[in-house]
Amino acid sequence: MKRLSCYITIGSFAFTQVVNVNVQSSWDTLTDTSEISLPRKLKWQGEDIRNLIKRGMPVKVQLGYDDQLESVFEGYVTKIHSSVPMKIECQDEMWQLKQTTVTKSYPNVDLKTLIQDTTSLNTFEAPDLGLGPFRLSEITPAAMLEYIKETYYQKAFFRDGTLYVGLSHFYKLYDPQVKIFDMQHNVVSHDLTYEIAEDQKIKLKAVIINEGNERIELEYGDPDGEQRTLYYYNVSQADVEAVASEEIQRMKYDGYKGSLTAFGEPFVQHGDIIEIRDATYPERTGRYRVKSVEYNFGQDGYRQNIELHERN
After folding, report:
1. Which of 5, 249, 252, 291 would be 197's cystine partner, CB 3.0–4.6 Å?
2. Range of the domain at 223
3. What is the pTM of this model?
């Protein structure tokens, strides 16, 4: 049996035992979060540890088995609970972008310039997207990114200290390895449903944003179907109509939808590709992009709850 291992640093303090750790990570949310529960009456040089851990301290969480560790979270302490066991709430690097406010006005600006002007980030990736006239009034850079997400549909998240912004940058972080999950071997539980393409109804909403940031909304497919939305920049309506039926067919696939809970190996991050196998239904083998992962580590073991995005 494999031995649970962890190495968690909070400021200058290091912990190899915890009551529980929960980490939630997704390309669909602005901020990854972690909650760390430490044993009661934990002391450092005779001092209660709860008096030493402070808001803003850097945090790194590494989890695994038999001292083979993977980094699942990096960020900062945001809140400390005086409960027993002691609970520490953390947010990733996005927390730093919530600590200051910005006031700026532009007659015309692009996304890359906006990020450069409003943050002190050394590295980030963003598309060449013109935003037109833009005004910020005492708003945090994080709130600005949330506005960009809601208005221009550009998702934003941190990975390894780099900010990624865009429609599809989560696909381009690296060349992900395919991780294998076998229903009879390393899948603990699941709420997956296997759906047949011909039984699915999809209504595609296409949103075209032109150079003047005007929006054209078009709908294709089944009027009573599950709505999916795609966004296009500086693309003609004719071009969108030419590919709409292909996009609908791509969204209709024979395969799984939902999430599965697995052990801590193989380690998965959002954006990865997993291959699901089932000896009972070998014809259902398929590969899927991962939308989000929730990690739970502690007295009940190490689990990853993996949410599927779409078939790869």
Report:
1. 252
2. 197-253
3. 0.89
